[in-house]
Inverse folding.
């Protein structure tokens, strides 16, 4: 353990952070799914369906009675009352003075999602004292997983009116929100999905590491001749050359993932989530290994890294689409929401590039960058992504 800590102190801070965080970031994030809809022809009544992952409930309630690592229906059924009470205590709707009451609560059921089995609660909510908004306070699982999110599909126009469906995300920093009882405006839809696209790229470490693996060599060019005692690369002489190279990479990645994001979100093409997530991890490995194969070189237009960005960007687009599917697409503004989410992804991506590129260009001629960040960084990225690949591909 002491040797490992000494190793971390020798790494740049960003790389040490990556070494410490593979487990939490390797799998699909912890999400629950709520569907809320105003009941047509009734005043203050809403239908609720809430899907919560059994693995998350196990963390919170210790459902695995015999501690064998496997949850059975018998173990879940024995704790169904505890699960229901936990859910009701962590989701409060309505004004504080007159909270909504749970009615017609259905027996606990199970449903399969792409990432495992979920407990399903269904009920009717009776609310009073509402004006033009439905206040919601969500606090499930934040105490055991601060990164947990509640993904809400909200239909103020009634369960049968798919055109009015909008999406909301409840997180530890946005645990209390007001759901408008009127249909959202086009601007509200754009703002919401841009924010979600930006946030996703910032919390998607596999996407970030793929992008960084492609950007790391951008500020370097291979030496025309070198001895064994010198570095194989030198810093690019002009920032304009670096900018053009990065522009090619970013543009290729953007075009590619926009294509598959659109095809998948519109349900024209559908791929299994496990395949997609495994392929994304593999793409990160290959991008990092390519940096090492080039002996730390690889900057400059001749390396055609934009081709790699385009090919693997097609795969990453399917990963973005799975997030968009979780959020839900409002049918009355489907294309608008799709475009806004993609714009958000690009804004998040450009923010990363804008923060990284001046830093990398400034340090491009130092051993710290060429050995510490490029070579060591590529090794760390490859190892992390390989770890993720094994977890995702073999469900370890």
């Amino acid at each position: 353990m002491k040797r490992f800590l000494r190793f971390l102190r020798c790494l740049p801070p960003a790389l040490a952070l990556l070494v410490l965080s593979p487990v939490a970031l390797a799998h699909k994030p912890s999400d629950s799914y709520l569907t809320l809809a105003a009941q047509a022809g009734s005043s203050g009544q809403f239908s609720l369906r809430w899907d919560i992952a059994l693995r998350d409930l196990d963390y919170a309630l210790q459902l695995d009675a015999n501690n064998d690592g496997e949850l059975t229906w018998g173990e879940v059924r024995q704790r169904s009352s505890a699960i229901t009470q936990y859910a009701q205590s962590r989701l409060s709707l309505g004004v504080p003075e007159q909270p909504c009451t749970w009615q017609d609560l259905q027996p606990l059921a199970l449903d399969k999602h792409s990432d495992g089995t979920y407990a399903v609660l269904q009920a009717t909510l009776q609310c009073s004292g509402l004006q033009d908004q439905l206040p919601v306070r969500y606090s499930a699982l934040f105490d055991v997983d601060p990164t947990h999110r509640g993904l809400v599909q909200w239909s103020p126009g009634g369960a049968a009116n798919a055109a009015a469906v909008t999406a909301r995300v409840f997180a530890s920093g946005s645990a209390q929100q007001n759901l408008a009882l009127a249909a959202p405006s086009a601007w509200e839809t754009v703002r919401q999905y841009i924010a979600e696209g930006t946030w996703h790229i910032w919390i998607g470490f596999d996407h970030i590491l793929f992008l960084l693996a492609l950007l790391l060599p951008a500020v370097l060019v291979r030496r025309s001749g070198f001895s064994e005692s010198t570095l194989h690369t030198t810093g690019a002489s002009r920032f304009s050359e670096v900018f053009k190279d990065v522009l090619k990479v970013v543009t290729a990645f953007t075009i590619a993932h926009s294509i598959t994001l659109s095809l998948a979100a519109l349900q024209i093409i559908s791929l299994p989530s496990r395949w997609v997530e495994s392929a994304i991890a593999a793409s990160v490995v290959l991008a990092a290994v390519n940096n090492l194969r080039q002996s730390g070189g690889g900057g400059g237009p001749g390396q055609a890294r934009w081709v790699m960005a385009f090919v693997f960007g097609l795969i990453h687009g399917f990963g973005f689409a799975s997030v968009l599917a979780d959020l839900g697409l409002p049918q009355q503004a489907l294309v608008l929401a799709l475009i806004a989410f993609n714009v958000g992804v690009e804004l998040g991506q450009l923010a990363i590039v804008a923060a990284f590129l001046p830093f990398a260009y400034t340090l491009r001629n130092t051993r710290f960058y060429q050995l510490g960040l490029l070579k060591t960084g590529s090794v760390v990225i490859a190892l992390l992504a390989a770890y993720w690949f094994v977890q995702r591909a073999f469900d370890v």
In short: The domain at 195-394 is CATH 1.20.1250 (Growth Hormone; Chain: A;). Confidence is low (pLDDT under 50) at residues 1-27, 159-163, 225-230, 295-302.
